[in-house]
Every structure is written in structure tokens, then in C-alpha cells.
Amino acid sequence: MVNFKPFSGGTKRPETKFIKGAASIKTVDSNTEGLHSSMQSKWRQIDLVNSIDSNLVLVCGIAEHTVADVYECHFWYNQLALILDGEMIIQDMDTLEVFNAHKGDLYYWAPGHKHRHGGIFRALFIKTPVPTRWISTPNGKLGFDVLHLENELIYEASPPDKILDIGRDMNITTRKLMKFVRGVLDIKPKRDTGSISALSQVDVINAEDTNLNLVAGVAEYDSDTPLECDHRWHQVAMVIEGEAVSEDIETGKIYIGHKGDLFYWPPGLRHRTHGHFRAYNMQTPIRRRWVSTPNGQSMVDMFQLDDNEMIYPSSPPDEVLKDLMS
Questions:
Q1: Using CA atoms, how far apart are residues 280 and 260, in angstroms rounded to an integer?
Q2: What integer pLDDT is reported at residue 139 of this predicted model?
């Protein structure tokens, strides 16, 4: 039984959220009466990393579809779905392509994508930004759509000055809004032989796929020497195999993860990671990108460019007081 605790407001320092056995956790029956029609099917769902944990940036959890109903889903957010059990059947409504996904297969859907969705399955999902939130009521768990609030005040857009004839060929390449990758859990990243780092990874959903919104893939670490990380991004990692150790530098708290366990590391967290493990990994915003060079794979750090990035300096304070203002 999952105990739900109402949020009472306030802030806290960034800390690791760690869920043992996330891949096999029991889901919760959901009252989807207030949600969009695409959520009216037989869903059981639980958010492991919720909107409060991530400051409304992302949610991550386990979803189960318990009947073979087919329904439509229209995306205004980014979503990853890693199949844990069963079969998820997707038909792209624009291309009519059909994909049958099983354990270890991964879907990515971009904003604007539409598909028909069916099958009986369990999946680990990650969504950004947050599309739905859940509250506890006397009648159970109730969900609502954060994009469609009742009686929300909206400033109307201005009409166009004119409408052009668009019958001509605009020569614009249409980019697919869906990516499907088979066998993600079996991927073993290839380590750059010239690198001294114990970390290797492959992004199967990369920056170009997501318009710089997120990356997802498999990371491998193979050392007892800690890798120190000053987080400036949101990261979710589910251990595939081995043992992953994460230590909070500021509190000394240590978390030890094994197969099926899940870590969430928020921006502002300072921690060390070590061990011998592989993990399914997602990051937003994008911390690094990879390019192929004559000397092999090379990493581009998105926070620290090597080409003398132009940065406008901040202004100095007008004064520094000895105490807090009153």
C-alpha cells in the first residue's frame, strides 16, 4: 500500500531521491475522470519522481495498461517509455507505421506527435514538462491535466495581417516526432580507448531527436574511484546491472543501487558516484553531446565550451550589508 502525503509547501536543499525496486513496484489504480480522453483507458500508474521533486520539470514513474484497448494520444510534451513487461503496440497516426515493443525496447515521442496506443504492458515513463498531477481524495487517487485548467485566464493572440497562398512547395523537411529503439537494456557502451575516464555511455535518444530537450541512453561506470559531479541538470538513472554507489558530498548520505533501483539527481546536488554498473539514463537539459572525429568519439560539454564562449558579465551589487534587511 502506498501512503500519500499532501504537500504543504516550502523549499528544501537539492537531494538524491532513491527508490529501491522501482522496476517492480506496484502501481496504483487511478481515477482519470478529469483527464483528457486519451487517459480514460484502464491505467494503473504511480509517479516515483513527481512534480514537487523536480520543480515541475519532469515526472518519472511506472505505468501499467491492463486491457488491450486502443486509444489516441496527442503529445504536447516530451515522453520516454521503456518497456518492462508485456507488449506496447504503437501506430504513428501520420505515417501509419506500427511498432510492437517488448521488454527492453524504448519509445521517444516529441511534442506534436499523435499515435494510436494499445497492448497490455508495464513501462517506466519519463515526461517533461509535467503534463499531469495527482491528488489524494476521499474517493482515491485523482488526476488532472495541468495544461487545461478550468476557467484559466488566457490572453488571446492577435489575428494575422494576411494569409498567404501556401500551395507552393516550401522545401521544408518534415522531421519525425517519434523514435523507437529495440533492446536498450542489452546495449553495452564502447569505451574510448584513449580516455582515462571510467565512464562510457551511448545516447540512443540524442539532442537532435529531441530538439535539445533531453538525451537518454545507457551509461556504464567501471571503477571504485569516485566520479565527482556538480549537477546543473535533472537526471534519472535506473540500474540495469551491477552496483552503483552515490554519495551526497554535503550530507554524507550514501545510496547503493542494484538492478531495478532508480536514482533521481536534481540541479544543485553535489555528489560522487562509483561502482561497477550499467544504467538506463536520462538528462535534461542536455549536459553533453558526442561527435565522431578521426581520433574516435569526442565529448562536447554543453556547460563549458572550449572555444572562448562570449559571456556578458553580471553587474556588481550596489552595496553589501552586514545583516539581513529589515
A1: 10
A2: 75
